[in-house]
Design a protein that fits this description.
With about 400 residues, the protein is an alpha/beta fold. It has two domains: about 200 residues, Tubulin/FtsZ, GTPase domain (Rossmann fold), CATH 3.40.50; about 120 residues, Tubulin/FtsZ, C-terminal domain (60s Ribosomal Protein L30, Chain: A), CATH 3.30.1330.20. The chain is built from 13 helices and ten strands. Strand 2, helix 2 and strand 3 form a beta-alpha-beta unit. Helix 11 runs parallel beside helix 12. The chain is elongated, with a radius of gyration of 24 Å.
């Protein structure tokens, strides 16, 4: 699947930058074009892979390149005011060559959480290609203002995109990690999971051909219908045979040679990885039962993939989700591992979102109380007891 990626804010820009690095390392060809948008000049300068001409600094008249200070209302206002500057960068994207737009943003800050819904609304008004969001939720220990930002942005963003894929920092932060190290680890996890998913179907002449092709239409149809999506992932290292195997040997059933994989072991590995991916850590933890649609992508060396295992995994997903819209296929790679990537779309039973909303409401009430109290305290501080002093004006 070929994407035009727009990284909005600090987190969004870094993640898109990491996607470009992944593209170069794997040759997956996911990112057709990448744009980074920010109100902070320093964040744009810190990017390594997004071309400088595609880095857009907005809000210079308001914040002078210093960011919006976690004020997502200001972030939204600046995105509205400077939407022409963002569109100027998007105009350079060969839209006829992309399958969809993907807007990536951290939902806890100011620029990304405020501006990403604005840009999503703008793109949907102009283009016919699907517009997806990838939103990153802040950890519960990052503070009330970031939780409040995330809850408000989530509520707005999900209504402006064709589907909102979510990654929850809370489920992925490791104890003892530095802040910078923690975010680097999280960004790698994001790119690994979504990289396998979006890479499916992007093969060039001479590449291994999938036995059961997953292409961009399968991903689009799974995401169609809106709502919230989560991704599961599991992998296992394998040995890559020098002979390759490939599609022809699989059709011929050439399992008798010393170098070929035992069919039963291959099938069992695939079904085991499918279970681990679905029942392990999802990008947004939730109950998979009730997911409206699902897509299974098995990636790995051709000799370690087979149709029987993928079909069993797909049927198991149907049973677990209760959905009849479960698609599946393989994505041959040369990497020495077999990986299962599962997209669950239209999930509903998501305790983390309810918790986020409740904490945000409490934070909002607390902020209002503090502001009211602050005004009273200021009055007590500056007014003299006898009201004898006259202010200048």
């Amino acid at each position: 699947m070929k994407l035009a990626m727009i990284g909005f804010g600090q987190a969004g820009g870094k993640i898109v930058d990491k996607f470009l690095e992944y593209d170069k390392e794997t040759g997956s060809g996911i990112v057709r074009s990448a744009v980074a948008v920010n109100t902070a000049k320093a964040d744009l300068l810190g990017l390594e892979h997004i071309p400088e001409e595609n880095r857009v600094l907005i809000g210079q008249a308001r914040v002078k390149g210093h960011g919006v200070g976690a004020d997502n209302e200001l972030g939204a206002e600046i995105a509205e005011e400077d939407i022409d500057e963002v569109q100027g960068a998007i105009d350079n994207i060969p839209v006829h060559e992309v399958d969809a737009f993907l807007i990536v943003a951290g939902l806890g800050g100011g620029t990304g959480s405020g501006g990403s819904p604005v840009v999503a609304k703008h793109l949907k008004r102009i283009y016919t290609e699907p517009v997806y969001g990838l939103g990153v939720l802040p950890g519960s220990d990052e503070g009330g203002i970031y939780t409040l930002n995330a809850a408000r942005s989530f509520q707005t963003f999900v209504r402006e995109v064709d589907n909102l894929m979510v990654f929850d920092n809370d489920a992925w932060r490791q104890t003892g990690e530095s802040v910078e190290g923690g975010y680097d680890h999280i960004n790698e996890e994001i790119v690994r999971r979504f990289g396998v998913l979006f890479g499916a179907g992007e093969i060039e002449a001479g590449d291994n051909v999938a036995e059961s092709v997953v292409d961009s239409s399968e991903i689009i149809n799974t995401l169609d219908g809106g709502g919230v999506s989560t991704v599961g992932y599991a992998s296992e290292d394998v040995e890559v045979s020098s002979g390759g195997g490939g599609l022809l040997s699989r059709f011929k059933g050439d399992d008798s040679s010393d170098d070929s994989m035992d069919t039963a072991n291959t099938t069992n590995r695939i079904t085991s990885l499918v279970r681990k991916a679905a029942l392990g850590r999802l990008t947004l933890p939730c109950e998979i039962e009730g997911a409206e649609r699902a897509l299974l992508v098995m990636a790995g060396p051709p000799e370690h993939l087979n149709r029987k295992g993928i079909e069993r995994g797909r049927k198991w997903l149907e049973e677990q989700t209760g959905s009849m819209e479960v698609r599946g296929g393989d994505y041959p790679t040369n990497a020495p591992k077999v990986a299962a990537s599962i997209l669950l779309a239209g999930v509903h039973n998501v305790p983390r979102i309810k918790e986020l909303q409740q904490v945000a409401i409490e934070a909002q009430d607390n902020i209002d109380d503090i502001r009211n109290q602050s005004e009273d305290n200021l009055e007590d501080l500056v007014e003299d007891d006898e009201d004898e002093l006259d202010p200048l004006f």
